[in-house]
Amino acid sequence: MRITASTISLTVDDVAASHAFFTEHLGYQEQAAGEGFASLTRDTADNAAVDIVLLQRGIEVLPPDQRDQRAAGLILAFTVTGLEAEETRLRAEGVEITMPLREEPWGEHLFQVTDPNGVVVQFVEWTTPDNS
């Protein structure tokens, strides 16, 4: 098997709200859209971001047992460079930081935001842990 791309499909109540959040604040572009559906991507020339498909909760394209589920209990994590600058930029754009910038003892430097549908987006930059 050869994986040629990665996509995460998120079932949300308001596709337009998540679409706006990811395109306005996180650099995604619309690849395709329709009633209750949007496919978002980022330019892959300089990053490895996962593509995102947004599906309206209840949409009939989903199997019946999945139609009422929502994107809950998951964290969409992006490993980035320039973490502190990214946090400053998002704050300046009015995005609420739902978990403040912090550094874990194992070298994970991170913060979180939450999109209008409750999708948690975490930004991570790895540092060398201080083992002194």
Considering the chains and any ligands shown, give keywords for the structure.
globular; alpha/beta; four-stranded mixed beta sheet; 37% strand; single chain; 16% helix; 132 residues; 2,3-Dihydroxybiphenyl 1,2-Dioxygenase, domain 1
Walk me through this protein's architecture.
The protein is of the alpha/beta class. It has one domain: 2,3-Dihydroxybiphenyl 1,2-Dioxygenase, domain 1 (Roll), CATH 3.10.180. It is 16% helix and 37% strand. It contains 2 helices and 8 strands. The chain has helices at residues 15-25, 83-92; strands spanning 7-12, 29-34, 37-41, 51-56, 75-79, 97-103, 108-114, 120-126. The strands form 2 sheets. Strands 1-4-3-2 form a 4-stranded mixed sheet, covered by helices on one side. A 4-stranded mixed sheet has the order 5-8-7-6, with helices on one face.
Secondary-structure arrangement, i.e. CATH architecture: Roll
CATH topology tier name: 2,3-Dihydroxybiphenyl 1,2-Dioxygenase, domain 1
Helicity level: 10-25%
N-to-C SSE string, H for helix and E for strand: EHEEEEHEEE
CATH class: Alpha Beta
Mean pLDDT: 89
Spans where pLDDT lies below 50 across 5 or more residues: none
| Tally of distinct domains | 1
Instruction: Write down the overall geometry.
Output: globular
Per DSSP, what share of the residues sits in E-state strands of 2 or more residues?
Answer: 35-45%
Question: Pairing-aware structural class of the strands and helices?
Answer: alpha/beta
Q: CATH superfamily membership, which one?
A: 2,3-Dihydroxybiphenyl 1,2-Dioxygenase, domain 1
Strand order of the largest sheet: 1-4-3-2
Strand tally? 8
Radius of gyration: 16 Å
Number of helices: 2
